[in-house]
Amino acid sequence: MDIEELIDDVISREGGYSDHPADRGGPTRWGITQAVARTDGYSGDMRDFPRERAAALYARLYWSRPRFDTVAKVAPRIAAELFDTGVNMGPKVATTFLQRALNALNRNARDYPDIAVDGVLGPQTSAALSTFLRVRAPRGETVLLKAIEALQGERYVDLAERRPANEAFLYGWLANRIGEPNG
């Protein structure tokens, strides 16, 4: 799946305009919050926020900037998951899930050294990912994907437990985000 398909999937899942009273993100359109749109210079009503602008923001802020495009070259399903998780929770959170999973799966640093869990996809994280995929081929990407999704699911439950208003979203998060867009 290429980035245009991933963006189309996210936009279709996120839908058009929303301003749910329990959503701390406030008014959103195409899944882009008003705060993100304003930071990008958009000053209009979010009901009118253009789809093309949302797509450009997704490509820049949630694919290129966090370097998920580099992950796609070695692990396309992981990259798709990081993108989708990054859209919903922020790219740094998605990257920390990857880093935590890589550290937990390195067999006490026998396969590669532990990496900093800093939410930055730098050379050490990239090297750890490449080594993991090589050492754990052919199933490594599938297992790593499961670990990332487990961390994501745990965070959703935690968010709902800590803030009961988030229970309004928990079912949808689990139904539409865990296992998506990777099936």
From TrEMBL:
| InterPro entries named among the record's database cross-references | Lysozyme-like_dom_sf, Peptidoglycan-bd_3, TtsA-like_GH18_dom
Q: Which organism is it from?
A: Sphingomonas qomolangmaensis
- Any idea what this protein is called? Peptidoglycan binding protein
> What start and end residues bound the annotated signal peptide?
none
Residue span(s) of domain TtsA-like Glycoside hydrolase family: 8-90
Pfam families found in the cross-reference section: Glyco_hydro_108, PG_binding_3
Residue ranges of the Peptidoglycan binding domain?
94-177
Source species, domain of life: Bacteria
